[in-house]
C-alpha cells in the first residue's frame, strides 16, 4: 500500500500473502488496523535455501477470515491464494469459558488445518487489564495461555503467544506487541521458506519431466509464474524476474531445438498461424487475457512472447531499469521474427511488421511514461534502436501497402491493408483515450498516403535527431538514405539529394567504396530527375569509372556522357565554352605518367621536345576526344643553375609518375593534403656569381594554406570539384582527335619554346570538358633558344706581344645554322695582323667531334674566315695565329700617365702579373653572319720585355746602357742588339761594346748592353736613340726571331761641370785620423763652353763683365761617416767659360776609422728669385724647395742669403705654393745625370784611428 | 558461421571486408559501416578504464532482425567486425571471441609482413583463408 502512494506509476499487484484469522472475529477486527500497519514496519532477514543470499524483507499480509475453503486442496499449486499462516485469536481469560467453547472451537480449527497438512498456525491470546479487573483473579494470569499450550502446542510452545493490552499505550503492552509482531514475522517467513521450498521442489520435478510426451510448457509456465508472483508479492522483483527469464530461456531453447529438428509436441500450439498482431501490451501489470490464453494452451508464439515480455517489463520497471526494457524489447522483437521464421509459422505478409511497429511504440510509450525528459534525452542510445526499427517497419508497411508510390495504393494493396488492420483487433481499453496510442498511429498511417508520410517522416526525423544527439552519425546517414529512397519514391528528388549528398560525404570521407558507389548511383538518379546536367555529368563520369559497377552499368553512364556531349555539340554547334560543363578529370581519366624525350626536359629550340602523357582512361568504352589540351604556364625567369634539384619529380629517364588517386575512394585513405613542395633558391650576384643568399621556398603554399583554413572539411574532392576553373589565356599544348581507349593511353605533345610549368589537363568531349585542375607534382620543361656566341680566348695563359700567338675561336652556333659560305669578317689592324696558317682546321663539337677546314682570305682591310657548315647547337672551334706588334714607343710603367688612347693599360685588378709587365689591349671587330652588329673582341697582350736606358759618363765620354728585362715567364734568345741614333747625326757614332750576338734571357732576368757615344764636332745636346733587338723563345729556331724596338731620348748629354773633391789630412799629418778635422776641398770646374741651347736656357748673370751662373753645392754624407764642420753648402758663382774652376774648402771630421767613402757632393743650379715665374709652378720645384728648406738649418747661422731665410717665414705664413704670387722664390734645379761629372765619385780615403782612443768600439755584426 | 568479416583501419576505412557471396554485399558494407558508431561509443566508454584492463572484445555491437554484429578493437584501434546470421543461435559468445582472436593473430601476421604497407587493403592469402574458414564453418 505504501509503495502505491510513493510510486503511483508502478502497477503493483494487489496481492499480499494471505493470513487467515479464526476465533474471536471482533477481537481481531479491533486489532486489524494496527496489525496490518505495524507488520511491514520492520524488516526481517529471510534466510533462503539453496545457498541463496539472505535478504531483508518487509512483510505484509492480507488478513482474511478463516474459512475451510481457503485451505488449498490437494494438487492445487496456486501459491497466490495459499494461506501461509493461520492465526487463532482469543481473549478468553477464564477457564470456564475456555473449556466451554473456545477449546472446542480451537480443536475444530486445528482439525481443519491438520486435514490440509498445514502446520503454520498461531494462537494469540489477548489479555487486557480491563478484563482482569472485571473478573477477579480466579486463576493466575497465564493459566489460559498455559492451558492452550498444554492442549495444542505439545512441542511448539512458541506457537501460542499472549498479547497484552494491545490497544493501550503502555510500555508493557508495547513490548508485548513488538514481540508478537516479531513472532508473527518469523512464523510467516518460516512458512514461506517451507512452502516455497516445497513448491520449488515440485516445480523442479515438473521441469525434469519436460522430455516426457505429455508435458506441457503452458502448464509449467503457470507453475513457475506462480512462484514469480509470490516473489513479486514479497516485492522480490529480482527473483520474480529470474523466474520469467528462466521461462524465457527454456522456451527459446525449445524453439531452437525445434528448429534443429527436435520437436516437442506442445510446441505445435505455438506454430499455429498468427491471426492477431496487436503488439505488446505493457500497461497492465498482468495481462490476464493473454495469461488465460496461455493457461488454456491456446496461445500463439506472439501471445506467449508478448505476455512474457510484459511481465518482464513490469518487473524491470519495478527494478528501476527502464533502459534494459528497451534493450530486451529489441532483442525480443528480433527473436520473435526469427522464431516465427524458424518455426515456419505462416504469417500474413506485413503482419509482423505491424506487430513490431506497435510493439516498438508501445515500449517507447511505456518508457516515456516512467522517465522524465532529461532522462530520456540522456538515454537516446537505448531508445534509438527501437525508433529506427519502428521506422523501418513502417516504411516497409508503407511500401507494401502502396502508400509510398506517387499514384497511391492499388486495389490489391488496399486489400492487404484491410487484412493487416483486421489483425490489429480492437484497441485495448487502456489506450482508447490516448490520442497518440501506437494502435491509432498505425491505423492512421495505413489509412492514407498523406498520413503515412506524416508518420513516417515524424519517426524518421525523430530517429535522425536522436542519432545526431548521441553522435551516431553513420547510423543517422543510413536513416537519411532510407528517407532519400522514400523521397525518390515520392518523386521529390530535391529532398532526396540532400540526404544522399550527406551520406555520400561521410562514406567518401571514410573511404567506403561500395556504399559510395551505391549512393552515387542514387544521386545520379536524383540529378537526372532534377535536370542538373552538370552534376549529373560529373556523377556519371564517376560512375562510369567505378570499378564496383558492372560493365553494363558503367557503359550506361559513359553513354550518358557521350550522348549529352554529342547532343550539345549538334544543337549548339557554335556555342561558346560553357564553364559549368567542366568536369573534374580524375573520374574520367587519370594522368599516370609523363615522360619527356629527351629526358632532361630541356632542349634548345630547334630540337623536338616531346611530352608523352600516359593517361589511364577509366571509361569502359573508347572515348573520342575532340581535343586534349595541356595548359602550360610560362615561367619567366628561372634560377639558372642547372642543378638536378630543379625538377625533383623528374626521374633520370625523364618520367614523372603521378600518384594514383581513386575517385571513388576519396581522400581519406591517402594523404589528403598535398605534400610540401619545396624548392631551393640561390641568389647570386650577377657580376661575380658570388652567393648572396640562399633559402628554401614552398611553392604550393596556397594549396596548403587553404587546407589548413578548413580542417573540418571532410570532403576536399567535392569542394574542389565544384570550383574547377580552366585557366584562360594560358599557352597550351594541344592534341586533336584523340581516342582514349579504356586503360592506358599514350599521347604525345611537342612542346613550344620557353620554360613552362604544366598546369592543367583538359579533355574535350563534345561540349563537355574534363579538367584536371592541377598537375601535381609540378612538372616543368624548358625549350630554350640560344643566340650564337663567339668567344675568342688565348690558347695559353697569356698572350705575349711580339710573338705569334695562337688564339682559339669558339662559336656556339645556338639556334643558328652555319651555312656554306658564312664567314667571319675580322677587321685588320696594323698592330695585330692575323697570320696565315697553313693547317687551319676547325672542330665541330656536339657529342662527337667532327673535323672541317677553315679557309682564311685576307684583304687589305679585312680578314675573312669562311666557316664550315655547322648545324645548330654545335660548337665550332678553330685556332688562329695572331701577332701583336710591340709598340715602339717606350713601354710605360703603370705609374706613368696615360696619353695615348690606342694603347691602354689593363686595370689593376685584372692583372695577374707583376707590375713590371706592360699589357696591350687589342680590339678586333668581328662581323658575324648571324648578326648585323659587329662583335668587338678584346685581346690582351703582354710585352715580354721591359727596357730601361741610362746615360753613363766618364769625364766627357758618354755611354748609353740599355737594360732589357725579361718580365715574362718564357726564356728568350736575344740577338742583334743594336742602338741607332734616330736623327742619324753624321758626326755621331755609337760604338757597341757588346760581345755576343746571341744571348739567352731567362725569365725575370736582365741583359745589359752598352754603347759609347762618340761625336766628332760638338757633343749632341739631345740624343734620339732606337734600341732594336731580335728575340725568339729560347727553344725556337733562328727564323722565328722577332724584332723588339725600344726608342728613347736622352737630353743634355754634355758634361758641363766636373766636380772634384780632395780630402787633406790636417796639416802635418800623414793621414786622416778619426775625430780629427780634415780639409775638404771641392773644386767645381766648368768643362764646356756654353752651347747654343744652353745660352738660351740658362740663366746667367752678368757680373764684372763676366757671365756667371750660380751653382749651389752641398756636401751630403748619408752614411754618417763624416761630420761637416761649418758650412756644408753654399752658393758659388761660376763664370760661364771652359775650365773655369771654383774651389770651396771646408772642414770635415771623419767619425770612424777605415777606408771611408768621400762624402757626396751635390751641385745644383741656383735660380734666383728674379727667375721668370713660368718655371715656378713646376711640380718638381716644390720638392727641391723642400730639400732646400732642410738645408736652411745649415744656412741659418750664415745668414748670407737673406732671401733664403725669409723664405722660411714665408713658407710658414703661406698656405700653399700655388697661392704664392708675391715675391718669387729662389729655387734649385738639379742637373741631368750627364751634365755633372763627379770625379771623386766612389773615392775613398784612409782614416786612421785617433791616437788617443781609449775605448775601442767593436761592432760585431 | 560468420556471414561477413571486416577489418577497419583506425581512420575507419575498410582494410578488408568480405561477406558470403550469396548475400547482398552492399548491405553488409552498410551494416559494418554503421556498426562503427557503436564501436566508437564502446571504445570511448572503455577508454575511461585503465589501459591494461582494456578488453579488446567489444561484444555484440547491435542486433538487427537478421544479423548480429560483433566488434573487436585492437590496441592500435584497428577494428574487427564480424557479422553473424541471427538465425545461427548455436553460436556462443566464446566462439565469437575465439574467432576474433584468430582474426587478430592472422592480422598481426599480415602486419608483420615486411612487404605489407600498413594502411593498405589486406590482400594476404593466408588471411583470406582464415576468414574463409570462419565463413565456411557455418554451412
UniProtKB/TrEMBL annotation, chain A:
GO cellular component term, pick one: cytosol
UniProt cross-references to InterPro entries, sorted A to Z: Ig_TRAPPC10, TPC11, TRAPPC10/Trs130, TRAPPC10/Trs130_C, TRAPPC10/Trs130_N
Segments forming domain Trafficking protein particle complex subunit: 415-545
TRAPPC10/Trs130 N-terminal domain location: 14-325
Subcellular location: Golgi apparatus
UniProt record, GO biological process: early endosome to Golgi transport; intra-Golgi vesicle-mediated transport
Span of domain TRAPPC10/Trs130 C-terminal: 1020-1248
Mitochondrion in keyword set: no
Biased amino acid composition, Low complexity: 659-672
Region (Disordered): 641-672, 1198-1232
TRAPPC10 Ig-like domain location: 791-941
Record keywords: Golgi apparatus, Transport
Protein name per its UniProtKB record: Trafficking protein particle complex 10
Native organism: Electrophorus electricus (Electric eel)
Gene name, Swiss-Prot/TrEMBL: trappc10
UniProtKB/TrEMBL annotation, chain B:
Gene3D superfamilies cross-referenced by the UniProt entry: 3.30.450.70
Species per Swiss-Prot/TrEMBL record: Electrophorus voltai
Gene Ontology biological-process annotations: endoplasmic reticulum to Golgi vesicle-mediated transport
GO cellular component: perinuclear region of cytoplasm
Subcellular location: Cytoplasm, Perinuclear region
Family membership noted in the UniProt record: Belongs to the TRAPP small subunits family. Sedlin subfamily.
Keyword Transport recorded: yes
InterPro entries linked to this entry: Longin-like_dom_sf, Sedlin, TRAPPC2L
Name the UniProt record assigns to this protein: Trafficking protein particle complex subunit 2-like protein
One Pfam family in the UniProt entry: Sedlin_N
Keyword Transport applies: yes
Keyword annotations: ER-Golgi transport, Transport
Amino acid at each position: 500500500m505504501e509503495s502505491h502512494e510513493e510510486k503511483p506509476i508502478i502497477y503493483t499487484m494487489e496481492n499480499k500473502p494471505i493470513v487467515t484469522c479464526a476465533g474471536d472475529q471482533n477481537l481481531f477486527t479491533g486489532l486489524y488496523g494496527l496489525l496490518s500497519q505495524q507488520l511491514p514496519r520492520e524488516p526481517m532477514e529471510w534466510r533462503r535455501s539453496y545457498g541463496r543470499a539472505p535478504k531483508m524483507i518487509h512483510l505484509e499480509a492480507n488478513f482474511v477470515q478463516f474459512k475451510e475453503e481457503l485451505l488449498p486442496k490437494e494438487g492445487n499449486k496456486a501459491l497466490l491464494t495459499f494461506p501461509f499462516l493461520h492465526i487463532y485469536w482469543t481473549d478468553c481469560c477464564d477457564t470456564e469459558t475456555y473449556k466451554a467453547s473456545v477449546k472446542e472451537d480451537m480443536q475444530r480449527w486445528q482439525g481443519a488445518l491438520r486435514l490440509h497438512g498445514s502446520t503454520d498456525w498461531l494462537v494469540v491470546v489477548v489479555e487486557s487489564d480491563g478484563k482482569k479487573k472485571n473478573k477477579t483473579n480466579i486463576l493466575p494470569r497465564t493459566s489460559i495461555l498455559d492451558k492452550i499450550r498444554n492442549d495444542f502446542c505439545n512441542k511448539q510452545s512458541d506457537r501460542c503467544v499472549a498479547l497484552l493490552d494491545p490497544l493501550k499505550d503502555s510500555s508493557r503492552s508495547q513490548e508485548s506487541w513488538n514481540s508478537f509482531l516479531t513472532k508473527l514475522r518469523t512464523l510467516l517467513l518460516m512458512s514461506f521458506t517451507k512452502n516455497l521450498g516445497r513448491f520449488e521442489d515440485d516445480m523442479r520435478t515438473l521441469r525434469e519431466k519436460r522430455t516426457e510426451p505429455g508435458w506441457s510448457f503452458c502448464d509449467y509456465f503457470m507453475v513457475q509464474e506462480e512462484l514469480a508472483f509470490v516473489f513479486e508479492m514479497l516485492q522480490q522483483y529480482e527473483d520474480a524476474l529470474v523466474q520469467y527469464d528462466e521461462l524465457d530461456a527454456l522456451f527459446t531453447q525449445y524453439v531452437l531445438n525445434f528448429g534443429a529438428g527436435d520437436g516437442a509436441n506442445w510446441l505445435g500450439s505455438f506454430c499455429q498461424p498468427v491471426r492477431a498482431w496487436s503488439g505488446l501490451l505493457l500497461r497492465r501489470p498482468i495481462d490476464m487475457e493473454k495469461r488465460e490464453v496461455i493457461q488454456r494452451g491456446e496461445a500463439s508464439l506472439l501471445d506467449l512472447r508478448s505476455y512474457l515480455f510484459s511481465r518482464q517489463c513490469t518487473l524491470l520497471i519495478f527494478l528501476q531499469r527502464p533502459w534494459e526494457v528497451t534493450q530486451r524489447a529489441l532483442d525480443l522483437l528480433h527473436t520473435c521474427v526469427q522464431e516465427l521464421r524458424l518455426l515456419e509459422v505462416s504469417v500474413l505478409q506485413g503482419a509482423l511488421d505491424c506487430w513490431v511497429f506497435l510493439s516498438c511504440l508501445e515500449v517507447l510509450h511505456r518508457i516515456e511514461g516512467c522517465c522524465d525528459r532529461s532522462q530520456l534525452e540522456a538515454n537516446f542510445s537505448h531508445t534509438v534502436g527501437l525508433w529506427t526499427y519502428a521506422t523501418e517497419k513502417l516504411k516497409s508497411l508503407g511500401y507494401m501497402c502502396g502508400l509510398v508510390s506517387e499514384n497511391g495504393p492499388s486495389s490489391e494493396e488496399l486489400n492487404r491493408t484491410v487484412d493487416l488492420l483486421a489483425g490489429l483487433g480492437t484497441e485495448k481499453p487502456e489506450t482508447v483515450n490516448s490520442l497518440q496510442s501506437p494502435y491509432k498511429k498505425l491505423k492512421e498511417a495505413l489509412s492514407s498516403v498523406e498520413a503515412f508520410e506524416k508518420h513516417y517522416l515524424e519517426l524518421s526525423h525523430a530517429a535522425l535527431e536522436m542519432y545526431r544527439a548521441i553522435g551516431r552519425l553513420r547510423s543517422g546517414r543510413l536513416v537519411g538514405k532510407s528517407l532519400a529512397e522514400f523521397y525518390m519514391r515520392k518523386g521529390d528528388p530535391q529532398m532526396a539529394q540532400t540526404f544522399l549528398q550527406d551520406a555520400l560525404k561521410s562514406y567518401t570521407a571514410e573511404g567506403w567504396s561500395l556504399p559510395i558507389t551505391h549512393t552515387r548511383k542514387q544521386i545520379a538518379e536524383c540529378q537526372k530527375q532534377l535536370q542538373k546536367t552538370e552534376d549529373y555529368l560529373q556523377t556519371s563520369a564517376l560512375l562510369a569509372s567505378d570499378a564496383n559497377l558492372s560493365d553494363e552499368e558503367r557503359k550506361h553512364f559513359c553513354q550518358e556522357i557521350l550522348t549529352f556531349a554529342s547532343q550539345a555539340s549538334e544543337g549548339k554547334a557554335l556555342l561558346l565554352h560553357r564553364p559549368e560543363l567542366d568536369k573534374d578529370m580524375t573520374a574520367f581519366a587519370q594522368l599516370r605518367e609523363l615522360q619527356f624525350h629527351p629526358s632532361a626536359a630541356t632542349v634548345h629550340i630547334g630540337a623536338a621536345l616531346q611530352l608523352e602523357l600516359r593517361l589511364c582512361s577509366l571509361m569502359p568504352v573508347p572515348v573520342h576526344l575532340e581535343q586534349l589540351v595541356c595548359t602550360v604556364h610560362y615561367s619567366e625567369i628561372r634560377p639558372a643553375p642547372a642543378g638536378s634539384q630543379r625538377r625533383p619529380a623528374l626521374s633520370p629517364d625523364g618520367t614523372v609518375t603521378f600518384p594514383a588517386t581513386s575517385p571513388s575512394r576519396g581522400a581519406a585513405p591517402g594523404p589528403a593534403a598535398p605534400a610540401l613542395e619545396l624548392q631551393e633558391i640561390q641568389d647570386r650576384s650577377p657580376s661575380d656569381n658570388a652567393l648572396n643568399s640562399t633559402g628554401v621556398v614552398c611553392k604550393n603554399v596556397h594549396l596548403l594554406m587553404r587546407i589548413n583554413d578548413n580542417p573540418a572539411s571532410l570532403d576536399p574532392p567535392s569542394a574542389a570539384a565544384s570550383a574547377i576553373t580552366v585557366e584562360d589565356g594560358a599557352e597550351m599544348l594541344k592534341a586533336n582527335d584523340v581516342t582514349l581507349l579504356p586503360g592506358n593511353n599514350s599521347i604525345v605533345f611537342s612542346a613550344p619554346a620557353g620554360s613552362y610549368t604544366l598546369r592543367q589537363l583538359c579533355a574535350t568531349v563534345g561540349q563537355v570538358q574534363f579538367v584536371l585542375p592541377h598537375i601535381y607534382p609540378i612538372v616543368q620543361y624548358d625549350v630554350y633558344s640560344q643566340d650564337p656566341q663567339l668567344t675568342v680566348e688565348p690558347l695559353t695563359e697569356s698572350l705575349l706581344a711580339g710573338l705569334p700567338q695562337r688564339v682559339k675561336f669558339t662559336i656556339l652556333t645556338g639556334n643558328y645554322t652555319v651555312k656554306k659560305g658564312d664567314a667571319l669578317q675580322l677587321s685588320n689592324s696594323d698592330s695585330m695582323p692575323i697570320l696565315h696558317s697553313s693547317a687551319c682546321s676547325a672542330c665541330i663539337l656536339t657529342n662527337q667531334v667532327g673535323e672541317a677546314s677553315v679557309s682564311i682570305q685576307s684583304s687589305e682591310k679585312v680578314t675573312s674566315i669562311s666557316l664550315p657548315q655547322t648545324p645548330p647547337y654545335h660548337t665550332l672551334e678553330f685556332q688562329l695565329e695572331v701577332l701583336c706588334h710591340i709598340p715602339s714607343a717606350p713601354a710605360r710603367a703603370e705609374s706613368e700617365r696615360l696619353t695615348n688612347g690606342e694603347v691602354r693599360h689593363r686595370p689593376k685588378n685584372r692583372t695577374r702579373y707583376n707590375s713590371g709587365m706592360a699589357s696591350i689591349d687589342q680590339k678586333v671587330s668581328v662581323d658575324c653572319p648571324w648578326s648585323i652588329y659587329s662583335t668587338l673582341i678584346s685581346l690582351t697582350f703582354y710585352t715580354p720585355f721591359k727596357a730601361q736606358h741610362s746615360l753613363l759618363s766618364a769625364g766627357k765620354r758618354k755611354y748609353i746602357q740599355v737594360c732589357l728585362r725579361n718580365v715574362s715567364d718564357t726564356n728568350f734568345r736575344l740577338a742583334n742588339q743594336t742602338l741607332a741614333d734616330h736623327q742619324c747625326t753624321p758626326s755621331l757614332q755609337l760604338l757597341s761594346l757588346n760581345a755576343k750576338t746571341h744571348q739567352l734571357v731567362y725569365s725575370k732576368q736582365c741583359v745589359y748592353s752598352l754603347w759609347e757615344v762618340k761625336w766628332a764636332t760638338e757633343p749632341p745636346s739631345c740624343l734620339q736613340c732606337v734600341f732594336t733587338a731580335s728575340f725568339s723563345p729560347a727553344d725556337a729556331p733562328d727564323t722565328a726571331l722577332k724584332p723588339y724596338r725600344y726608342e728613347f731620348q736622352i737630353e743634355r748629354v754634355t758634361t758641363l761641370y766636373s766636380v772634384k773633391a780632395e780630402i787633406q789630412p790636417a796639416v802635418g799629418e800623414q793621414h786622416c785620423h778619426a775625430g780629427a778635422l780634415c780639409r775638404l776641398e771641392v773644386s767645381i770646374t766648368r768643362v764646356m763652353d756654353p752651347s747654343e741651347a744652353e745660352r738660351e736656357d740658362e740663366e746667367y748673370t752678368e757680373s764684372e763683365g763676366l757671365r756667371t751662373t750660380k751653382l749651389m753645392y752641398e756636401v751630403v754624407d748619408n752614411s754618417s761617416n763624416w761630420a761637416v764642420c761649418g758650412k756644408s753648402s753654399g752658393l758659388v758663382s761660376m763664370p760661364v767659360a771652359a775650365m773655369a774652376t771654383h774651389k770651396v774648402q771646408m772642414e770635415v771630421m771623419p767619425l770612424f776609422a777605415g777606408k771611408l767613402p768621400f762624402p757626396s757632393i751635390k751641385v745644383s743650379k741656383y735660380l734666383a728669385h728674379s727667375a721668370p715665374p713660368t718655371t715656378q709652378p713646376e711640380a718638381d720645384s716644390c720638392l727641391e724647395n723642400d730639400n732646400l728648406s732642410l738645408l736652411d738649418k745649415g744656412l741659418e747661422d750664415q745668414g748670407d742669403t737673406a732671401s733664403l731665410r725669409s723664405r722660411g717665414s714665408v713658407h710658414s705664413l703661406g698656405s700653399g705654393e700655388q697661392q704664392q704670387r708675391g715675391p718669387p722664390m729662389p729655387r734649385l734645379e738639379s742637373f741631368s745625370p750627364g751634365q755633372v761629372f763627379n770625379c771623386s765619385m766612389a773615392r775613398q780615403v784612409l782614416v786612421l784611428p785617433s791616437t788617443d782612443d781609449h775605448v775601442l768600439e767593436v761592432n760585431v755584426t | 558461421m560468420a556471414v561477413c568479416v571486416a577489418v577497419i583501419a583506425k581512420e575507419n576505412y575498410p582494410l578488408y571486408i568480405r561477406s558470403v557471396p550469396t548475400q547482398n554485399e552492399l548491405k553488409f558494407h552498410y551494416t559494418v559501416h554503421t556498426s562503427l558508431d557503436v564501436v566508437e561509443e564502446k571504445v570511448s566508454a572503455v577508454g575511461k578504464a585503465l589501459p591494461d584492463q582494456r578488453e579488446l572484445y567489444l561484444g555484440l555491437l547491435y542486433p538487427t532482425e537478421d544479423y548480429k554484429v560483433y566488434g573487436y578493437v585492437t590496441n592500435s584501434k584497428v577494428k574487427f567486425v564480424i557479422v553473424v546470421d541471427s538465425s545461427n543461435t548455436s553460436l556462443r559468445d566464446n566462439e565469437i571471441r575465439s574467432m576474433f582472436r584468430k582474426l587478430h593473430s592472422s592480422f598481426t601476421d599480415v602486419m608483420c609482413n615486411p612487404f605489407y604497407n600498413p594502411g593498405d587493403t589486406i590482400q594476404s592469402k593466408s588471411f583470406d583463408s582464415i576468414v574463409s574458414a570462419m565463413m565456411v564453418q557455418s554451412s
